[in-house]
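Tokens in:
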């Protein structure tokens, strides 16, 4: 196979394997989860946490940072601040730090006001009573005022408001696949696909590296055709396609031209102010696309995409090069978007926030799944172990609707119990915040035991649920 045809993830995986096989004292990882599939990210998390050597990571994968690091260094306004803890803990501390800084600033502002008023007052008295003493006091106070070490108001981050407006809505049926298969000559990536995409669906496409996610999105975008079967494309679709490799951006033109091209008759000022909304100001708009950083390219690409006012977004790993702030702006925009979205991502925060449905490449086809990502990928190893003991499905069972119904009732029942237990766990954990509990050793112990027991029950229920859900999916 030509290296050129390796998927983005396959390339990263080869690179990572080469690095980890060599001896090292310190591991430096610059955006290691870019292009890695979720399963590999879980694997890397486990690898890093069991490793006894230090590592330094640059990453915008919030979930990954939560599971791997114990210290965060943030570069902001030309200084580095450090925080102990993982990403979530850093966010909390940062929030507190900013609030404290703002409070200190306001307090200080009041004090300064008071001092200034007092200085004026001394002067007024000084003049009225012709008293040198008052002027001396004013001077002294002025000196003290000059010595006050000033706190600044924390700089508010420049928020970028992305807004995916649609020009018109699409029909209700966006895509229908019947017995479809797709792939490359001699390499069918998935077959027997029977799925539908409806207006306003928000679907995440999941699967390991190289399974065919990008190829599937290309199929939706009409870049390739199915190998067999049917697909029906709905009416009035304005497709906005964000490709993983940013090939849709023309490297040979400038930032300015990229947008101007879309509206050649618009005045220059329009393009300037449009680009400013996406953080491109001053000389930046004259930069050639080829010299932009990955993040800048991604931002420009989004600006271009939004300008086209699509009603069907096909997004292939859109968060890869974005920083965490930009990812959260994109999340906000996509949550408000009133069209249809099909996307590939391995950013677990992003997926859980945006996706209302998950489709996964599995056993040579694409299937729906309602499982949470942690359950889907983390417990896979356990499932593999159990699989050998499980009875094989017979053709008979596959078509038997009564068995399906029974299974689905079981799944519903277990889900209900699980929800109940989780609620109970929440109430128990809240108990810890009560002084009459945390001041009493015995009560703490019995509560801890209680919580342990419930956690075990929850874990067992989750495993059961996974197994039944898998069985159900196999039978569909
Ligand atoms: N133009 C091509 N010709 C032949 N094989 C390809 C081509 N493009 C990609 N492939 C192969 O098809 C598989 C799926 O690729 P892709 O859809 O990019 O995977 P991913 O799920 O990681 O996005 C990979 O094994 C890749 O090497
Ligand atoms: Mg891909």
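Residues out:
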């Amino acid at each position: 196979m030509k290296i050129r045809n390796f998927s983005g993830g396959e390339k990263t995986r080869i690179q990572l394997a080469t690095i980890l096989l060599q001896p090292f004292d310190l591991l430096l990882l610059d955006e290691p989860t870019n292009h890695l599939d979720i399963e590999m990210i879980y694997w890397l998390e486990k690898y890093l946490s069991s490793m006894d050597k230090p590592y330094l990571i640059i990453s915008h994968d919030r979930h990954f940072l939560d599971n791997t690091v114990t210290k965060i260094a943030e570069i902001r306004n030309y200084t580095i601040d450090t925080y102990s803890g993982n990403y979530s803990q850093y966010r909390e501390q940062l929030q507190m730090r900013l609030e404290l800084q703002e409070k200190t600033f306001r307090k200080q502002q009041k004090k300064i006001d008071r001092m200034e008023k007092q200085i004026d007052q001394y002067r007024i008295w000084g003049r009225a009573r012709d008293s040198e003493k008052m002027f001396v006091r004013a001077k002294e106070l002025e000196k003290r005022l000059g010595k006050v070490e000033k706190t600044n108001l924390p700089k508010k981050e420049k928020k970028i408001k992305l807004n995916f407006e649609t020009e018109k809505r699409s029909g209700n049926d966006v895509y229908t696949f019947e017995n479809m298969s797709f792939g490359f000559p001699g390499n069918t990536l998935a077959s027997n696909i029977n799925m539908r995409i409806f207006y306003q669906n928000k679907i995440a496409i999941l699967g390991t590296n190289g399974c065919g996610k990008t190829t599937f999105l290309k199929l939706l975008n009409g870049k390739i055709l199915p190998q067999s079967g049917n697909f029906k494309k709905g009416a009035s679709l304005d497709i906005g396609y964000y490709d993983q490799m940013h090939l849709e951006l023309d490297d040979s033109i400038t930032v300015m031209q990229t947008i101007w091209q879309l509206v050649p008759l618009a005045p220059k000022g329009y393009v300037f102010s449009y680009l400013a909304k996406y953080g491109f100001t001053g000389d930046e708009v004259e930069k050639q696309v080829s010299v932009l950083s990955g993040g800048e390219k991604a931002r420009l690409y989004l600006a271009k995409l939004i300008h086209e006012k699509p009603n069907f977004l096909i997004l292939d790993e859109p968060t890869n090069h974005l920083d965490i702030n930009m990812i959260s702006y994109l999340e906000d925009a996509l949550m408000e978007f009133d069209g249809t979205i099909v996307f590939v991502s391995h950013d677990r925060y992003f997926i859980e926030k945006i996706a209302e449905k998950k489709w996964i490449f599995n056993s040579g086809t694409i299937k729906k799944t309602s499982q949470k990502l942690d359950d889907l990928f983390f417990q896979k190893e356990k499932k593999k172990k159990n699989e050998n003991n499980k009875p094989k499905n017979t053709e008979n069972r596959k078509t038997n609707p009564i068995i399906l119904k029974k299974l689905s009732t079981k799944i519903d029942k277990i889900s209900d119990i699980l929800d109940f237990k989780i609620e109970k766990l929440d109430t128990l954990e809240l108990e810890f915040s009560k002084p009459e509990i945390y001041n009493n050793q015995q009560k703490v112990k019995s509560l801890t035991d209680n919580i342990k027991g419930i956690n075990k029950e929850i874990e067992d229920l989750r495993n059961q649920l996974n197994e039944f859900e898998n069985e159900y999916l196999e039978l569909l």
